[in-house]
Design goal:
- The protein is α/β, with parallel strands linked by helices and 211 residues long.
- It has a single domain, classed as Rossmann fold.
- The protein contains 8 helices and 12 strands.
- Strands 3, 4, 5, 6, 7, 8, 9 and 10 form an 8-stranded mixed β-sheet that branches.
- The relative contact order is 0.14.
- The protein binds S-adenosylmethionine.
- The site of S-adenosylmethionine (SAM) has 21 residues, from helix 3 and helix 8.
Length: 211
């Protein structure tokens, strides 16, 4: 799996990621310039944080400053690297565009399978979709979030109610794109939370069996 730090790219195997000493791992898909990953890694040192993006150029600057608990991976979310399988206790997708956005709204199987493959049982998922990107994809905030919610449910996620974000809400998101949107023409977005169910515990006369 290709990881980037500044101008250097290295091929890192699953056991070389450095996540083994951490109970919780966040994977931020479509991480852009990686600012959100840096923020979480710095403010939550007990988490290991991985940013994934298909575009390496925007990641050079931030990845140079990555602390020990942060890593940046160059990968297409529609072909998630096997090395990330079963790692994430939480996944975030902030303000996707392009194939990441259409993959979500069109229920692209390779994207949804990738999401399921990287997530542990019980993993949380947070998605923020902005109004302009949804309009370009032929949706309103309401229709886009309803569609995504329905797709996530049929993929196996439990979903919460969507929450609207205005300029103030966007300013509280620690991503570069959120900041741009907050001061732009259409400072509106929708925030969706979802969770994979934990495996059920089946009680048997002899004790407990994890199902
Ligand atoms: C609008 S930017 C948001 C970046 C960042 N999450 C933020 O909030 O600042 C969307 C990002 O999604 C990435 N992206 C789009 N399609 C992708 C794909 N198929 N796989 C991985 N990243 C993708 C783009 O390269 C871009 O960095």
């Amino acid at each position: 799996m290709e990881c980037i730090r500044g101008n250097t790219s290295v091929d890192v195997p699953a056991d070389g990621l450095g996540a083994a000493n951490y109970d919780d791992v966040l994977i931020d898909i479509g991480t852009g310039d990686g600012r959100y990953v840096l923020h979480v890694a710095q403010t939550r040192p007990e988490w290991f944080v991985i940013g994934v993006d298909a575009c390496r150029d925007n990641l050079r600057k931030t990845s140079r400053r990555a602390p020990r608990n942060a890593l940046y991976v160059i990968a297409n979310a529609l072909a998630m690297p096997d090395e990330l399988t079963g790692m994430a206790s939480k996944v975030t997708i902030n303000f996707p565009w392009g194939s990441l956005l259409t993959g979500l709204l069109d229920a692209e199987p390779t994207l949804l399978e990738g999401l399921l493959s990287i997530a542990r049982p019980g993993a949380g998922l947070e998605i923020r979709l902005n109004s302009e990107a949804l309009t370009e994809a032929g949706h309103t905030l309401e229709s886009g979030s309803a569609r995504l919610r329905q797709i996530l449910r049929s993929t196996g996620f439990d979903t919460g109610d969507p929450r609207l974000l205005d300029a103030r809400g966007l300013r509280q998101c620690h991503t570069t794109w959120a900041n741009r949107l907050a001061y732009g023409r259409d400072p509106r977005a929708v925030y969706l939370q979802a969770k994979l169910p934990q495996p059920s515990i089946i009680t048997s006369p002899g004790g407990y069996l994890a199902g």
